[in-house]
Amino acid sequence: MKRSQFLLALASLSIVGGSFFLRRNFSSTSEPKIITDTLRYKEIRNQLWSNNDQVKHFPNEIPTDAKAVRIAYSPEFLQGSSFFQIRLKQPPNKIEKFLSQYRNSAKHKYRGGNTNDHINQPNGVPTTFFYTSDSHTESFPATYEILVLNADNKGRPGFKWNHGDSYGVAINSSASEIIYWYEKW
Q1: Measured on CA atoms in the order 85, 86, 89, 91, is the torsion positive or negative?
Q2: Is the CB of residue 179 less than 8 Å from the CB of residue 173?
Q3: pLDDT tens string 109-149
Protein backbone atom coordinates (compact mmCIF):
# COMPACT_ATOMS: atom_id res chain seq x y z
CA MET A 1 0.00 0.00 0.00
CA LYS A 2 1.35 3.38 -0.95
CA ARG A 3 1.81 6.07 1.66
CA SER A 4 -0.97 8.26 0.11
CA GLN A 5 -3.43 5.34 0.16
CA PHE A 6 -2.53 4.64 3.79
CA LEU A 7 -3.07 8.27 4.79
CA LEU A 8 -6.39 8.36 2.92
CA ALA A 9 -7.55 5.15 4.67
CA LEU A 10 -6.44 6.54 8.05
CA ALA A 11 -8.27 9.83 7.42
CA SER A 12 -11.46 7.99 6.40
CA LEU A 13 -11.28 5.82 9.49
CA SER A 14 -10.77 8.92 11.67
CA ILE A 15 -13.79 10.67 10.15
CA VAL A 16 -16.04 7.63 10.51
CA GLY A 17 -14.80 6.87 14.02
CA GLY A 18 -15.00 10.51 15.08
CA SER A 19 -18.54 10.91 13.80
CA PHE A 20 -19.57 7.73 15.61
CA PHE A 21 -18.27 9.07 18.92
CA LEU A 22 -19.80 12.51 18.33
CA ARG A 23 -23.16 10.97 17.39
CA ARG A 24 -23.03 8.65 20.40
CA ASN A 25 -22.07 11.48 22.70
CA PHE A 26 -24.70 13.82 21.25
CA SER A 27 -27.40 11.14 21.37
CA SER A 28 -26.78 10.36 25.00
CA THR A 29 -27.04 14.02 25.98
CA SER A 30 -30.01 14.83 23.75
CA GLU A 31 -32.21 12.35 25.60
CA PRO A 32 -32.95 13.88 28.99
CA LYS A 33 -32.57 11.51 31.89
CA ILE A 34 -35.41 11.35 34.37
CA ILE A 35 -34.08 11.58 37.90
CA THR A 36 -36.08 9.56 40.42
CA ASP A 37 -33.63 9.48 43.35
CA THR A 38 -35.51 11.03 46.30
CA LEU A 39 -32.19 11.81 47.99
CA ARG A 40 -31.65 14.45 45.31
CA TYR A 41 -34.97 16.23 46.00
CA LYS A 42 -33.55 19.13 48.00
CA GLU A 43 -30.70 19.67 45.53
CA ILE A 44 -33.11 19.75 42.55
CA ARG A 45 -35.63 21.99 44.30
CA ASN A 46 -32.96 24.44 45.39
CA GLN A 47 -31.48 24.50 41.89
CA LEU A 48 -34.90 25.33 40.42
CA TRP A 49 -35.76 27.77 43.21
CA SER A 50 -32.88 30.05 42.29
CA ASN A 51 -34.22 30.35 38.75
CA ASN A 52 -37.97 30.77 39.20
CA ASP A 53 -40.92 31.05 41.55
CA GLN A 54 -42.82 28.15 39.98
CA VAL A 55 -41.61 25.70 42.64
CA LYS A 56 -42.18 27.88 45.71
CA HIS A 57 -45.29 25.81 46.54
CA PHE A 58 -43.13 22.65 46.79
CA PRO A 59 -42.00 21.74 50.32
CA ASN A 60 -38.45 22.93 51.15
CA GLU A 61 -37.59 19.41 52.26
CA ILE A 62 -39.37 16.09 52.15
CA PRO A 63 -41.59 16.17 55.26
CA THR A 64 -40.56 13.71 57.98
CA ASP A 65 -44.10 12.28 58.15
CA ALA A 66 -44.23 11.70 54.36
CA LYS A 67 -44.58 8.14 53.12
CA ALA A 68 -44.27 6.49 49.68
CA VAL A 69 -42.23 9.41 48.33
CA ARG A 70 -41.55 9.47 44.60
CA ILE A 71 -39.95 12.14 42.46
CA ALA A 72 -39.56 12.60 38.72
CA TYR A 73 -37.35 15.32 37.33
CA SER A 74 -36.30 15.93 33.75
CA PRO A 75 -33.95 18.89 33.35
CA GLU A 76 -34.35 21.29 30.47
CA PHE A 77 -32.18 20.59 27.46
CA LEU A 78 -31.67 23.21 24.74
CA GLN A 79 -35.21 24.39 23.90
CA GLY A 80 -36.84 21.22 25.17
CA SER A 81 -39.30 20.78 27.95
CA SER A 82 -38.65 19.99 31.58
CA PHE A 83 -40.75 18.82 34.49
CA PHE A 84 -40.51 18.23 38.22
CA GLN A 85 -42.93 16.27 40.41
CA ILE A 86 -42.89 14.99 43.95
CA ARG A 87 -45.59 12.60 45.12
CA LEU A 88 -46.07 11.76 48.77
CA LYS A 89 -48.55 10.45 51.26
CA GLN A 90 -49.33 12.71 54.20
CA PRO A 91 -51.67 12.35 57.17
CA PRO A 92 -55.33 12.89 56.13
CA ASN A 93 -55.67 16.09 58.19
CA LYS A 94 -52.72 17.64 56.30
CA ILE A 95 -54.15 16.59 52.95
CA GLU A 96 -57.49 18.21 53.79
CA LYS A 97 -55.68 21.41 54.81
CA PHE A 98 -53.69 21.42 51.54
CA LEU A 99 -56.84 20.74 49.52
CA SER A 100 -58.63 23.70 51.09
CA GLN A 101 -55.60 25.98 50.68
CA TYR A 102 -54.91 25.10 47.04
CA ARG A 103 -58.57 25.02 45.96
CA ASN A 104 -58.84 28.63 47.09
CA SER A 105 -55.78 29.77 45.13
CA ALA A 106 -56.19 27.60 42.00
CA LYS A 107 -56.82 29.41 38.72
CA HIS A 108 -58.02 26.21 37.02
CA LYS A 109 -59.41 22.95 38.43
CA TYR A 110 -59.69 19.54 36.81
CA ARG A 111 -60.71 16.06 37.90
CA GLY A 112 -58.33 13.34 36.65
CA GLY A 113 -56.81 13.30 33.17
CA ASN A 114 -53.58 14.78 31.85
CA THR A 115 -52.29 17.89 30.10
CA ASN A 116 -53.77 16.88 26.72
CA ASP A 117 -57.22 16.41 28.26
CA HIS A 118 -57.04 19.67 30.19
CA ILE A 119 -55.84 21.97 27.40
CA ASN A 120 -58.62 20.69 25.10
CA GLN A 121 -61.39 21.74 27.46
CA PRO A 122 -63.09 25.13 27.06
CA ASN A 123 -60.67 27.74 28.46
CA GLY A 124 -58.31 24.84 29.22
CA VAL A 125 -54.64 25.16 30.05
CA PRO A 126 -51.75 22.70 29.91
CA THR A 127 -51.01 20.89 33.16
CA THR A 128 -48.85 17.78 33.48
CA PHE A 129 -48.70 14.03 33.02
CA PHE A 130 -48.66 11.55 35.92
CA TYR A 131 -44.87 11.05 35.88
CA THR A 132 -44.78 9.65 39.43
CA SER A 133 -47.44 7.01 38.81
CA ASP A 134 -46.92 3.47 40.09
CA SER A 135 -47.68 2.22 36.58
CA HIS A 136 -46.89 3.51 33.12
CA THR A 137 -50.12 5.49 32.92
CA GLU A 138 -49.82 9.12 31.89
CA SER A 139 -53.20 10.23 33.22
CA PHE A 140 -54.36 10.92 36.73
CA PRO A 141 -57.31 8.78 37.85
CA ALA A 142 -60.58 10.63 38.56
CA THR A 143 -59.78 10.45 42.30
CA TYR A 144 -57.23 13.26 41.79
CA GLU A 145 -58.08 16.95 41.77
CA ILE A 146 -55.61 18.79 39.58
CA LEU A 147 -55.34 22.36 40.82
CA VAL A 148 -53.45 24.76 38.54
CA LEU A 149 -51.87 27.57 40.52
CA ASN A 150 -50.63 29.30 37.37
CA ALA A 151 -50.17 28.71 33.65
CA ASP A 152 -48.15 31.13 31.55
CA ASN A 153 -48.61 31.11 27.78
CA LYS A 154 -45.35 32.12 26.09
CA GLY A 155 -46.48 31.14 22.61
CA ARG A 156 -47.09 33.51 19.75
CA PRO A 157 -50.24 34.28 17.75
CA GLY A 158 -51.31 31.17 15.88
CA PHE A 159 -49.16 28.97 18.14
CA LYS A 160 -50.93 29.28 21.48
CA TRP A 161 -49.20 27.32 24.23
CA ASN A 162 -46.28 26.51 21.91
CA HIS A 163 -44.04 27.58 24.80
CA GLY A 164 -44.93 28.21 28.40
CA ASP A 165 -45.09 26.74 31.85
CA SER A 166 -47.62 25.69 34.45
CA TYR A 167 -47.52 24.52 38.02
CA GLY A 168 -49.79 23.32 40.77
CA VAL A 169 -50.79 20.29 42.80
CA ALA A 170 -52.77 17.11 42.27
CA ILE A 171 -54.51 15.82 45.38
CA ASN A 172 -56.13 12.46 46.03
CA SER A 173 -57.95 12.75 49.38
CA SER A 174 -58.99 9.09 49.48
CA ALA A 175 -55.35 7.94 49.15
CA SER A 176 -54.09 10.82 51.31
CA GLU A 177 -51.65 11.89 48.56
CA ILE A 178 -50.41 15.16 47.18
CA ILE A 179 -48.34 15.68 44.06
CA TYR A 180 -46.53 18.97 43.56
CA TRP A 181 -45.74 19.62 39.90
CA TYR A 182 -44.04 22.11 37.61
CA GLU A 183 -43.91 21.75 33.83
CA LYS A 184 -42.11 23.86 31.22
CA TRP A 185 -42.17 23.44 27.46
Answers
A1: negative
A2: no
A3: 999 999 999 999 999 999 999 999 998 889 999 999 999 99
